[in-house]
C-alpha cells in the first residue's frame, strides 16, 4: 500500500489519517482469535483496569504471539511508516488496547511524546502510532478523540497523572485542551474534535504530538484496537526506567513481512 499525496497532505494538516479497509475480515478474524488466550495470561504486560479487573492494554503482544508478530511487521503498516519517515525505524511499542464492553476506562487527553520524552528520554517527537481496529469502533464504544491540528502545538507542558487510571500517563491540562479545540474549531467548526470511528480492519496513523484521548465504553460492544509505535533508530530512547514491554530496546531497523502473511495458511 502506498499513501497518496492527498492522504499525506491530510496527515500533515490534521496530525492523523484514517485508512478504511486497510485489513480484510479474514485477517481481523485471525487476529481476534488470538486475543482470548493472550488476555487470560497472568503477565505483567497485561495492564488491568483500575475498577473492573479487565485487561486494559496487552503490551509486548508481538513477542507473545506469532500472528501479532506478523501484524507488527505488516507491509501495509511498515510501508506507510517508511513513506512518512524515510529512515530506519525500530519497534518502540506494540499493544492491544482492549476497552471492554461496559467497563473500558478513559484515556485522558494526552500526546504520546510527553511520555516518550519524560519517561524514556526520546529526543524528538518523530514516532508514529499506527492502529488497526480489531472491532468495529462506533460513537458509543470508546473511540479515540483527536483534536485536528493539535500536533502543531509541538511538545508543550504535560502533567504526570498516576491516579486516574492504572496506566501512568503524561496528560494535557484542560486549559490547553480548550485552546487547541478553539483553534481547530476556528479552522473548521465541524471538526473541533474528531471521533475516529470505522469498521474492523480500519487503520489509523497519527503523530507523536497529536493530542488525543478516549471516553469510557458504556456500550455492550467491545472495542479492541492494535497499536504499533515505530520510532527512528536515530531518535532512540536514552533511558530504560520503564519495563521493556512499554518501550522495546531492540533498535534494529524493522523489516516488513509479506503482504499475505495474515492470510489463513500463509507460511
Ligand atoms: O485506546 C485508546 O482508547 C487510547 C489509547 C491511547 O491513547 C494511547 O495508547 O496512547
Bound molecules: 2-oxoglutaric acid
Number of DSSP helices? 6
- Overall tally of domains: 1
Shape: globular
Low-confidence stretches: none
Percent helix, as a range, is 10-25%
- Compute the CA-based radius of gyration: 17 Å
Describe the secondary structure blueprint for this structure.
Layout: H1 5-14, E1 16-19, H2 25-40, E2 46-48, E3 55-59, H3 66-72, H4 75-84, E4 89-97, E5 107-110, H5 112-120, E6 128-133, E7 144-146, E8 159-161, E9 169-171, H6 174-187, E10 194-196, E11 203-207, E12 212-214, E13 225-232
Antiparallel strand pairs: 1-11, 2-3, 3-4, 4-13, 5-12, 6-11, 6-13, 7-10, 7-12, 8-9
The structure holds 2-oxoglutaric acid.
Describe this structure in words.
The chain has a single domain (24-235), classed as Sandwich (Jelly Rolls). 25% of the residues lie in helices and 22% in strands. It has helices at residues 5-14, 25-40, 66-72, 75-84, 112-120, 174-187; strands spanning 16-19, 46-48, 55-59, 89-97, 107-110, 128-133, 144-146, 159-161, 169-171, 194-196, 203-207, 212-214, 225-232. The model has no long low-confidence stretch (mean pLDDT 97). The two termini are 21 Å apart. By secondary structure, it is an alpha+beta fold. The chain has a seven-stranded antiparallel beta sheet with strand order 1-11-6-13-4-3-2. Residues 97, 99, 107, 112, 142, 144, 212, 214, 225, 227 line the site of 2-oxoglutaric acid.
